[in-house]
Write a structure and sequence with these properties.
binds phosphoenolpyruvate, about 20% strand, 11 helices, four-stranded antiparallel beta sheet, binds manganese (II) ion
Length: about 350
């Protein structure tokens, strides 16, 4: 159920609806919008009685939701959510560039890359301290030492830090050092981790699972939001198909599909989405052209020596080239952004 308030509803009217929802033993999720507030209701197993709400002051209508998701939906919030990450945003007019190495390997490596990322005007530095690797023998990340390096990067370059949590213990550490928590593809349906992320104060970057349908992905976001954390950004990173020419098949059609259903921002990761250095630039261009709110790209000062994902990492020169090209595309598509 979704309660749409009148445009002139007061704070007290909204509070009254929230109170009735609570009295019924459910949870209310008020979402203020540009013209009106809507209140999502979760926690109900069956249908909620519409009549209970329709007569309350300030209520325009009570709508039964037939879709499996409620809080991610455009029905709840018709305008795009702009997610605040540290001192920058994702989902606004500016194209969000999230860049950095697959894994933090050393202070020198992170700083060399961060320098280039800062120079490019990007606002977000992403590097893994906890890496979910297919092989238990592969480099697993520096752990908390990696997080400490990331917070030094924030200090030195003013970049906002995005880094992955792979379980509840690492999530608590990321909360201490980072600005945004990445939930990786392999954990997209780790429901206890999603719920814990939903209780975090930090925004969440939710990558699409390796073989997740759009509904499964959106419902994973719903898990986070149902716990009260509405700051979720979706990240398309490719899915597994029969294709052998790429690591994953980057599903760019999912961007307009997300747009049609959800107010959440969505970014494209052409690095994991292709697995190949030479494909990152063309797919980054395409990701922006298709309407993504941002890009997540892997960059390394010495890709040939990277401890993980070197084959898909851009070198610093290639990264600069990419930034110039995608900015030009973004500006051509959104002239207002260029002026601002
Ligand atoms: C990563 O972002 O480095 C990563 C491991 O990505 P994914 O979860 O998309 O595989
Ligand atoms: Mn990687």
């Amino acid at each position: 159920m979704l309660i749409v308030m009148k445009t002139d509803a007061t704070e007290a009217d909204i509070e009254r609806v929230v109170q009735v929802v609570n009295e019924l033993g459910f949870r209310a999720h008020p979402m203020p919008g540009a013209t009106r507030t809507a209140i999502g209701i979760t926690g109900n197993q069956g249908a909620v009685d519409v009549a209970r709400f329709e007569s309350l002051p300030g209520v325009a209508e009570a709508i039964r939701v037939s879709k499996p998701y409620k809080l991610i939906s455009l029905d709840l919030r018709p305008e795009k959510t702009v997610v605040q990450v540290g001192d920058a945003t994702i989902g606004g007019d500016e194209l969000a560039i999230v860049a950095g190495p697959c894994a933090v390997e050393s202070r020198a490596q992170a700083f060399a890359i961060a320098e280039a990322v800062r120079k490019s005007g990007a606002r977000f530095f992403r590097g893994g301290a906890f890496k979910p690797r297919t092989s238990p023998y592969a480099f697993q990340g520096l752990g908390e030492d990696g997080l400490k390096i990331l917070s030094e990067v924030r200090e030195a370059y003013g970049l906002n830090i995005i880094t992955e949590a792979i379980d509840e213990a690492s999530l608590e550490l990321v909360e201490r050092y980072g600005d945004m928590i990445q939930i990786g593809a392999r954990n997209m349906q780790n429901f206890s981790l999603l719920k814990r992320a939903g209780r975090s104060q930090l925004p969440i970057m939710l990558k699409r699972g390796l073989s997740a349908t759009l509904d499964e992905w959106l419902l994973a976001a719903e898990y986070v939001m149902a716990e009260g954390n509405y700051n979720v950004v979706l990240c398309e990173r490719g899915v597994r198909t029969f294709a052998q020419h790429t690591r994953n098949t980057l599903d760019l059609a999912v961007i307009p599909a997300v747009r049609r259903l959800s107010h959440l921002p969505v970014v494209v990761d052409p690095s994991h989405g292709t697995g190949k250095n030479y494909m990152v630039l063309p797919l980054a261009r395409a990701g922006v052209a298709v309407g993504a709110d941002g890009l997540m790209v892997e960059v390394h000062d010495q890709p040939e020596r990277a401890l993980s994902d070197g084959a898909q990492s851009l070198n610093l020169e290639q990264y600069d080239q990419l930034i110039q090209e995608v900015r030009a595309i973004h500006e051509a598509l959104t002239p207002a952004a260029a002026v601002g």
